[in-house]
Amino acid sequence: MPASQNFGPHTRRKPLHAPRGVVATSQPLAASAGLAVLRQGGNAVDAAIATAAALAVVQPGSNDIGSDLFALVWDGSALYGLNASGRSPAALTFETAHAAGVPASAALGGAQADAVSTMPARGWLPVTVPGAPAGWRDLHARFGRLPFPALLADAAHYAEHGFPVSPSVAHYWGRGLAAVRSTLEGRPEHAEWLRVFAPGGRAPAAGELFRNPDAARTLRLIGETGAESFYRGDTASALVGFAGGTGGLLSSADLAAHESTWVDPISVRYRDHEVWEIPPNGQGIAALQALGILAGFDRPVGVHEQIEAMKLGFADAHAYVADPAAMRVHPDALLDADYLARRRGLITDKAATPEPGDPARGGTVYLCTADAGGMMVSLIQSNYMGFGSYVVAPGTGFTLQNRGAGFALDPDHPNAAAPSKRPFHTIIPGFLTRGGDAVGPFGVMGGHMQPQGHLQVVLSTVDDGLDPQAALDRPRWYWHAGRSVQVESGFDGVDDLRARGHEVTVVPEPAGFGYGQAIWRTASDGLVAGTEPRADGVALGY
Q1: DSSP secondary structure letter of residue 22
Q2: Residue 25 and residue 52: Cα distance in Å, rounded?
Q3: Distance CA 72, CA 53 (A)
Q4: 0.85 cut: is pTM over it?
Q5: Is 11 a catalytic residue?
Q6: pLDDT digits (tens, 9 = 90+) for 156-167
């Protein structure tokens, strides 16, 4: 395991304190791009866009230009949400998806892990329209200050001239290639991915210079055209032409029809704070449900109760969350106080395997930024499952996401695969306020780990008074299914969890426990930030 993979309290970092602005993310070069924008007079949204674009280049295998994006923006007095996730091709029918389904035991993930079959994880079928380029543009149009092309300049420079691959990125890049290479070779839809991201037949080593000039051209076109090239111009033509020649369903009409959606963030009150998430089609509501359940206990709660509350949140999220147009239960019903009280009553002193309730009765990257004017941004973007679909159209330099793998193959499920539909999404940005005033942005990436990470960071902050760095350093727990719980080395309370019926495994390597960042505004109106000790993360300020 590379030295950079050490984590937890044994590598305790000090939090960053800064008076004017902060950028925190999982890759130092991307954080530097965002900080440079702040120092040039840009605001927190400008810095977030620059950081996100740079992450698409310097942290492949977690995100790319072909990703989706969600963001929460505090403008100094109010919170705004952006859902920049894409929809399935109009030609994707349920019958087509079901015919291509794979056994759940063979799938790499997805929202319904217990289904008889799931969407395939790689190739064209799980590809949905990438939302990140439009998300960058739409954030800039509403809140940005500096010229849009300038915000993508560092990302394009790193792509064209190269960047030294960081240790964590190299580690997971190599491991991911080894796991899938045999399934990619000889398939025309994957040939360009192998050429671009496995040059010479291997993943680059830590410190090795990696160049991607095609991605530089794509980024410059996005900047010069306000992303029009991506959805209606040269890049769109390349994507559609490659899809037509290699079995893809993506069409020019699918790309041209794409648009982001500004949404009202949803929240629950926990103690004297408010915790905010993007509403479905994301899974942030699972974290809010768990926090709402825990907030109602009239006795001290420990890790057992946290895990059981999280299970209840996931049970409902996996049963009800889908494209908002297809949801049969309104998010407000899932957060209703009486409903949460009923769910709370299901928690005993023993581990359980809960079912969804009935509310009708009553590879991801994360970044956060803050500026001197009071603006703060919580932003997350992702391919999904490492390099996503492992499909790269020649001349574009980026991998298309595989978010369609999150669709259900149950025709009666609200998240069933269908044409022009947003799938269940795992990526969720978080934001914390207190009495209506901003505390700050936070997030923990990592698929199924994300709501669990949000829960643990909030509890460490609100209940235990930890600073952002200490909250992120703390060893984490992770629940996936049944009574199985994984914990990181150094985690306290293992014996108690086992006595309550949890099947606990202590995992020495941090894979699966997520990467997080957080920035809090202090009582003196300064900023304090923490960054992920399990990766190459850094928080930079001035």
Answers
A1: E
A2: 9
A3: 17
A4: yes
A5: no
A6: 999 999 999 999
